[in-house]
Description:
single chain, alpha/beta, 2 domains, six-stranded mixed beta sheet
Amino acid sequence: MNRLELNPDASPRHAFGAELRKLRDGLGLTQDEMGERLSYSGTHMSAVETGRKPPTPRFARRIDQVFGTGSKFVDMFWDVRRTSLLHGFADYLAQEEQAVELRLFVLGIVPGLLQTPDYAEAITLGAVRRGSITREQADERLALLRQRQARLVGPPPPVLHAVLDESCIRRVVGGPGVMRAQLDSLLVFAELPNTVLQVAPYEMGEARSFDLPINLLTMRSGSAIAYSESSQQGYLQRDPDAVRPLMTAYHQLQVEALSQAASVAMIREVRRELQ
Length: 275
């Protein structure tokens, strides 16, 4: 049987595949046998191993968990995605996938998990036009976003609290038509049984708890994780003493922000004003 030679220097994706094969060979497993241990098909194993299919955060984390490789494959996953994702975001994705409750605060743009396809594409293509990413990287971002959004409809879906700075609903992205559809989507989101949507109005002023976006995750164990970003890197915080005051600040933000009913009314008003 012909065995495809792998070149780990060809790309991070091929390096991941080569390391996966090295691990499999060391264990004396076939692709089907290894796939069974990881709850994946042998065909999937072959596609990742040969670089025809990129690994996902879940796949990389599963390898590390089942075979005791620490964070080796999760770290290599970042190498695969580093050209299209902010450093540190891959680690966050692995945690987001397991969270039972998500709390988001954002400024300027609607958060990815709540974006319509047209809104998300407008944001991503803006980055392509600026030269920040390539079209291929844009497609990777959009595909990953679709995967993340699919989890919101379960089963079982996580509880999602989203506080949007007023700038998120007033900044027109993609033109009036795209923005109207995005605002309509937010109104639908607010009606879901597992969601809470609030707007932090401009008049909150200094009462707003955060000046930068932040994501707070509650895990099945009850532990909490915080994620924030600079322009160059994402930061995952697990220390309870550091996360606790952030969770308190988020609760304060929700108290000061508009109620969901008032937030929905504001979104409807902004939508009516769009020409």
